[in-house]
Amino acid sequence: MTELELLAPAKNLECGKAAIDHGADAVYIGAPRFGARADAGNSVADIAELCRYAHQFQAKVYVTVNTIIYDDELEASYSLLDQLAEIGVDAVLVQDMGLLAGYREHLSRQSSSIPHLTFHASTQTDNRSAEKVQWLRSLGFKQVVLARELSISEIAGIHRQVPDVKLEVFVHGALCVSYSGQCYASQACFSRSANRGACAQFCRMAFDLLDAEGRVIEHDRYLLSLRDMNQFDNLEALAEAGATSFKIEGRLKDVGYVKNVTAAYSERLNDIIRRHPDRYSRTSKGQCTYTFKPDLARTFNRGYTSYFANGRQPHIACFDTPKAMGEYVGTVKEVRRDSFTVAGTASFANGDGLCFVGKERRLEGFRVNRVEGNRLYPQSMPEGLRPGQPLYRNNDQEMERLLSRPSAERKIPISMTLRPTPDGFELSSGAVAVSMVIEHQQAEKPQCDNIVRQLTKLGGTIYSCREVTLAADFNYFIPSSQLAELRRLLVAKLTEGALSLLPSKQSGPSEPLDHTKMPAYSQPHLYNIANREACRFYGVAAPTAYELRPAADAVLMQCRHCVRYALGYCVKHGGERPQWKEPLYLRLGDGRRFRLEFDCRNCQMNVYASAR
């Protein structure tokens, strides 16, 4: 039986609890420092509270400590890991091998007994090959977050070669255009390192595309801005390929996004398990009920793509806008001075945000003040609105209203059995039992209905009762107050038992870490060596991280997304033969240029800084 895990993001404690309530088997959340989303840090106290809440359902909490660490931060990072171990987090995601090696030595120097941690390899460690996953396994990593760019067949190949490592894959949310951990464009342009949690989103900016002679091929387009990932329809294929953890992106997203997306994917996983009950199960406990219908179209998105799941596909990028377009709701039918009508089946609400792509290929948005059937009265009429234009809703007032309230309840179904003992009664659920000394009193009239009613009053707990079993000759009177106390004792013991079933923390093998099996990079900065422990681990004299030693000829991005392919000029994939002269360049509005290298052998596009 393969256990499947739905892994949801948590910007904060509220989002983390909402993810659990809406069906997550695990959540990942940023630590106070050293997380790859610097604006999504959380206190250790809040993470401890999230652990307590999640562990009731045997759900897990993973904490991101996945930036590169500088020398003057090493001791603080060790202290943070100690604190996370003490509060019982289930795993820590890391990128920096210096942190991993240094922390193991730190533990060996401690006189106190600190619980060991389980480490997962963050996607920031650039995990795109079986060779890399095998190397990470040798270092003691229990779970590896694969690169978003991998296809389902490539994931299956990794699983075949390294079957004893749990593979975590992204299934939904925003996409980085560069392989994670290998992007230095933000640092190069704005001194904000993606490897330090401060990405300035260089890839969401507008560029001109120039050829070697300076001719403008594309003007002011978002050539690196990808649509959002959506693997909803590929979830079963990913499970068959060997992925066991399905990750939703969104540690900067609001609670409404977390609720809707988590619920949608949880229902999808449950459907897969219902059809394959002997093959798959969930890693946590509990059944969710919702007050809304999950709908991925009605939440933040830039338009969806399955990315490279089934090989290279067109339209993975949106050159017109990096912003959320949202749900397609129809076409503009008739335009008047102060209103317009929509052809389609969508219904609208006052305050909805709508948008369309105008003549200049720019996204134009507006808010609806009043709705009368399919006639909409905007706050101000957009000048570019024309009949026949596709219309999108990027702010859904009705969905926001539904998600702003308590919108899910998660309960663990149990069965109870009540039986007499020599000096009282025992109440049990499965192998868990509690008993009380209660005087046996023969009932003068049937008591079964009242007993069932009292024992099943589980409101306010995480349990729901499917049935109460009593012997056919059970004929005792038990005061309601004592039934309530039996119920309380059983709930407390069940919860205590659920917490005790969590796996113990492990730190992996104790032998020295060996870097020599790591696949080689072509440029030193790609190893992200930023501290003395990483230097010692890799056997180099000084840090090579781009953030500390920027190199003029460094590759700033490695992308599977290819501008030449996206424009229809990839001969390898049947496109036209381009008439331009290469190399091509991206040019920002301030004049800075970036040379494109098309590595067709590896089907990869590299981005380099270039002189003006």
Structural features:
single chain, about 600 residues, alpha/beta, TIM Barrel, Thrombin, subunit H, 4 domains, eight-stranded parallel barrel, six-stranded antiparallel beta sheet, 14 helices, 28 strands, about 25% helix, globular
CATH class of the largest domain: Alpha Beta
Domains (count):
4
Q: Which strands sit side by side, in order, in the main sheet?
A: 1-2-3-4-5-6-7-11
Kindly identify the CATH topology of the largest domain.
TIM Barrel
Q: What structural class do you assign from the helix and strand content?
A: alpha/beta
* First-residue to last-residue Cα separation: 58 Å
Describe this structure in words.
With 612 residues, the protein is of the alpha/beta class. It has four domains: 2-175 and 227-290 and 292-298, TIM Barrel (Alpha-Beta Barrel); 323-403, Beta Barrel (Thrombin, subunit H); 412-500, no CATH class; 524-610, no CATH class. The chain contains 14 helices and 28 strands. The strands form four sheets. Strands 1-2-3-4-5-6-7-11 form an eight-stranded parallel barrel, surrounded by eight helices. A six-stranded antiparallel beta sheet has the order 9-8-26-27-28-25, with no helix packed on it. Strands 15-16-19-18-17-20 form a six-stranded antiparallel barrel. Helix 1 runs parallel beside helix 9, helix 5 (130-138) crosses helix 6 and helix 11 (448-455) crosses helix 12 (480-500). It is globular. The model is unreliable at 503-510 (pLDDT under 50).
